[in-house]
Design brief:
The chain has seven helices and six strands. By secondary structure, it is α/β, with parallel strands linked by helices. Strands 2-3-1-4-5-6 form a six-stranded mixed β-sheet, with helices on both faces. A hairpin with a 2-residue loop joins β2 and β3. The protein binds guanosine-3'-monophosphate-5'-diphosphate. The site of guanosine-3'-monophosphate-5'-diphosphate has 20 residues, from α2. Keywords: GTP-binding, Magnesium, Metal-binding, Nucleotide-binding.
Length: 196
């Protein structure tokens, strides 16, 4: 009887886990986003002035309502991008960060994004594009970014959302991540139904 009750209790407390990769070219703001997300959801994030450039990768586990969201921030430098695909089969969501205020790297960011979404293992996986650094006066608007990235053409076959944010201050992050988590959850459930 005790083991039955204890099993039931553990089942009630058990939290589902959803895994997501945080991608984007270097300097887009991935690590700042991860650290800010940790502090928005009750963990101790690192202050922006102490964030070192990402060598290798960072992991963040955040509890959002009853779900544990695990974020893998894979380094964005071109030498790290070749290993991103090793993580694709494990994830239920992609968060792609763009520096909206750096027009010189938009083409590189777009080419990187196209390569990511073309990968077999990411077919149908929901994608959130965060248009970061919206606090900067020169930041491109969502409309301008959508035109340059051709989002409408690229994302007809998966859940996709582009959201403005300022990772430094945190604006826009919570709404964006909640959208992604809800879609990642739907995706995970559809995958587990397929396996039954
Ligand atoms: P990365 O992990 O994608 O390589 P980082 O990028 O998170 O290391 O951020 C790169 C730089 O962009 C950092 O500045 C960081 O403070 C800045 N940054 C990140 N998000 C924002 C934002 O929303 N607004 C502004 N204005 N800056 C941002 P430094 O000076 O440390 O290189």
């Amino acid at each position: 009887m005790f083991s039955l009750l204890s099993g039931l209790w553990q089942w009630l407390l058990q939290k589902e886990e959803r895994r997501m990769v945080l991608l984007g070219v270097d300097n887009a703001g991935k690590t700042t986003t991860l650290e800010k997300l940790k502090s928005l959801f009750g963990l101790k994030g690192m202050p922006p002035e102490r964030i070192p450039p990402t060598i290798g990768f960072n992991i963040g586990r955040i509890q959002i309502d009853k779900v544990i969201a695990v974020f893998w921030d894979l380094g964005g430098h071109s030498s790290f991008r070749s290993v991103w695909h090793n993580y694709y089969s494990e994830v239920q969501g992609v968060m792609f960060i763009v520096d909206s205020a750096d027009p010189t790297r938009i083409e590189e960011a777009k080419a990187t994004l196209v390569e990511v979404i073309s990968h077999d293992k990411l077919q149908g996986v929901p994608l959130l594009c965060l248009a970061n650094k919206q606090d900067k006066p020169e930041a491109l608007s969502i409309q301008e970014l959508s035109r340059l990235f051709e989002f409408e053409r690229l994302f007809s076959e998966r859940p996709f959302h582009v959201h403005p944010c300022c990772a430094l201050q945190g604006q826009g992050l919570e709404a964006g991540v909640r959208w992604l988590l809800a879609e990642a959850d739907k995706f995970a459930r559809s995958q587990s139904n397929l396996q039954k």
